[in-house]
From TrEMBL:
Entry annotated with the keyword Transmembrane helix: yes
Keyword hit for Cell inner membrane: no
Protein name: Integral membrane protein TerC family
Protein source organism: Caballeronia insecticola
Family: Belongs to the TerC family.
Amino acid sequence: MLEFFSTLHWGAVVQIIVIDILLGGDNAVVIALACRNLPDKQRTRGIVLGTLGAIVLRVVLIAFAVMLLDIPFLKFLGGLLLLWIGVKLMQPDHDEHEISASDRLWAAVKTIIIADAVMSLDNVIAIAGAAEAADPRHRLTLVIFGLVVSIPLIVWGSTLVLKLLDRFPAVVLLGAGLLGWIAGGLIIDDPFIDRWPALNTEFAIYAARVGGALLVVGVGWLLKRRALAEGNRAAG
């Protein structure tokens, strides 16, 4: 253990932590949206379990980062999945009698892990690149160490966003729109799209991100209205 810390590349550690902080905003939004309908007593558990699961999966992704990002259609399909998650997170909560508290907790954790895995396809490259400066024997351990250090920051960020969601419900729209923005960027950045130069421009990338955000918010809002109307008819 002492040998590990004595040979640790602290510059790389700092870089990884900074990257996690800068890129952790997206994760905090997803975690908060997924946990917002949990009972107050389970919110902290949902945040912590979701964060831990997402970080474990991110470590696995980092080990295969370069190979994963070169697979055609992977980012495209990931973007579509993220669009669906964004729409799903806008929907009203189910009746508490229909879903047990335990099931609601694990459903939130599953949503967090899936969304984080999709969003991390690009982020892991930055972390893996920062670890390249370290001793090859310590790279994976270094990545894990940096991610573990960042856990409290992600948890704190998620808790802060949850408080905003409770006070300002409209923040849900912004969070869902952010997921759509990220999804649009993933889709347009897929290696398969590279064969069309017209889609590799700054304008096309921006348009794809805006389109993804508008699609999630629009479809999510329409489905939410329909679900609330059906709920009111059933209650009446």
